[in-house]
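Input chain follows. Return structure tokens only.
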Amino acid sequence: MAQAPALKLVPTPGQTIGPFYGYALPFRDGQKLVDRAHPGSIRLHGTVYDGEGETIPDALLEIWQADEHGRVPRETGSLVRDGHTFTGFGRAAVDNEGHYTFTTVNPGPTDEGKAPFILMTVFARGLLNRLFTRVYLPEDAAALEADTLLSSLPAERRSTLVATREANGDLHFDIRLQGAGETVFLEYPRGS
């Protein structure tokens, strides 16, 4: 009996992300990695825009980051905010004007001379899969110039990954899903 030829299976596409995050995914104080009274706390905030430059009122963002000393947290209980354990994870829904806010700390470099950054994931209506990007701190120009990811990008695209430091120390970072000034999004290779 002859065998049928082997078929290569491919993953099915992701589901369209709908505006249902406010019901199921946000959790109490998810946007608060540290309390605002914590020494060194900052606010990371910005707005999410679509390809037409309109705000997106129903996106959800997640961040992961090292602490201020560059240590990647290994604490369990990321969804529980106990007021003193820094887990490096946060989740925030945007408001009805597309604005988001996280209360966190400036991440330190994970290795000497490395540019510190915050990983960010974007979920929004119309996306078949989530999008990944980075939020780099703007201060260390030499580390930014030497960063492997940033240096692999055309010079005019690098700024879409670098936050702006405000006078009070907070970070401002807008996300543009398409169009002029589109944020650089990362693609991670899938296992075969």
